[in-house]
Amino acid sequence: MSDNTRQHRLATMRACDRILSGIRPVTMRERLADLDAGGDLDGLPDFYGDGPVTVLEKRVAELLGTETAVYFPTGTMAQQVALRYGADRTGRSAVALHPLGHQEMHERHAYADLTGLRAVWSTREPRNPTAAEIAALEEPVGTVVVELPLRDAGFVLPTWSELTAVSVAARETGARVHFDGARIWESTPYLGRTLRQVAAVADSVYVSFYKSTDGISGAALAGGADLAVYARSWRHRYGGNAFQQWPAALFALSGLARELPRIPGYVRHARTVAAALSALPGARVYPLPPHTHQFRLWLPFPARELDAAALALAEQEKVWFVGGWRDSEVPGYAMTEFTAAAAALEWTAADVTEAGHRFLRRAAG
User: Fold this and answer.
1) Is the pLDDT of residue 1 over 50?
2) What is residue 37's predicted lDDT score, i.e. its pLDDT?
3) Taking the CB of residue 172, how many other CB atoms lie within 10 A of it?
4) What contacts 343, CB < 8 A, 6 or more positions away?
5) What contacts 24+ positions apart, CB below 8 Å, involve 5-14?
6) Per UniProt, what is one Pfam family of this protein (predicted)?
7) Rounded to an integer, what distance in angstroms lies between the CA atom of residue 107 and that of residue 26?
8) Cβ distance 238 to 84 under 8 Å?
9) Per-residue pLDDT reduced to its tens digit, 157-202
């Protein structure tokens, strides 16, 4: 998608009275005003990672129940450090990854190109690996990565028993367990456990501050004290020890305080919305019910027609249904990733159905 197309879509979405999928875009001035209402702007800024960055690190460690947490400007950098740590500590240059995981799909294979590691695919199935698959890996690995949820398989999660069994199996092979937890915040309702209980199953956890918790950027790598010492050294080597990062830290703290308590409600409402969407003519929803507040939606139209319908509905009726469509591997169908956030809470199942029919009529021309 070109920048102009994205900016046009965001501007159109921002002007709507009602939004079903996604978060209403706000201006930079509005974001700053919101921070002024909830952030500690009277404190001194950070200097190479102290001040508000330290406060954020302590807050993440408290939430996850880990010894420490280390702030990183990007999740890609944090994940490289986690995998490098596993390789150095075990003497194994292979890592167990999923072909649909972040490292393969969204990080440009940095683990291989920058760190010199090799991937052993834990499974080719569109889900996280099982304990049996970990036990049967073709060679010893330093780290087994589990993405919670596995976004590019449809935001899917294992069950709690499956997750704990994978952890046991990985450690029996001598590997560390790393959770790619960019969206771990919304995984707890399905798993039926607290953040601390989930994090305790892994040796390290990466979390994101702009996915689901409404920060502007940044990530953290949480785990033991030895990992933290290692992470701070390699963060510096990778160029991540910036002079000041207080805006991202303050927005992250604000988002954790405001959005984290709301996420279970988003997850519950996503199930209502998904059921209503699945009843639309030709619609496919996966997973059904959703595991988190995000899921995949397919409709039997080309992506360009669905995006055009979304813009027309928004411009003419001030209603944002769902955009960001792309043609899929399912013949005749386009797919989008659906996010049920705060704005979606205003929609009943009947509202979704009624607007969905209007949306489909526009797509059909």
Assistant:
1) no
2) 67
3) 11
4) 18, 19, 20, 22, 23, 24
5) 8/311, 9/307, 9/311, 9/323, 9/324, 12/311, 12/314, 12/315, 12/320, 13/314, 13/320, 13/323
6) Beta_elim_lyase
7) 27
8) no
9) 999 999 999 999 999 999 999 999 999 999 999 999 999 999 999 9
Domains detected in the chain: 3-26+262-363 (3.90.1150.10), 39-244 (3.40.640.10)
CA distance 356 to 329: 23
* Whether the Cβ atoms of residue 166 and residue 127 lie closer than 8 Å to each other: no
The rounded mean pLDDT for the chain is 96
How far apart CA 204 and CA 199 sit, in angstroms, is: 8
Structure tokens at 346: 């205003």
The predicted pLDDT at position 6 comes to 85
Q: Which residue is associated with the tokens 């805006």?
A: 247
Cα–Cα distance measured from residue 221 to residue 78, given in angstroms and rounded to the nearest whole number: 6
Q: How far apart are CA 218 and CA 56, in angstroms?
A: 11
DSSP for 227-280?
HHHHHHHHHHHTT---S--HHHHHHHHHHHHHHGGGHHHHHHHHHHHHHHHHTS
DSSP type of residue 168: H
Tokens, residue 298: 């397919």
DSSP assigned state of 115: T
Instruction: Provide the token pair at 227.
Output: 């990992």
Q: How much is the pLDDT for 110? A: 95
Instruction: Give 35-57 pLDDT, tens digit per residue.
Output: 876 677 889 999 999 999 999 99
Distance CA 133, CA 139 (A): 12
Contact by Cβ (8 Å): 315, 296: no
CB 313 within 8 A of CB 354: no
Beta bridge partners of 220: 71, 207
End-to-end CA gap in the chain = 23
The fraction of the chain above a pLDDT of 90, given in percent, is 94
The pLDDT tens digits for 287-312 are: 999 999 999 999 999 999 999 999 99
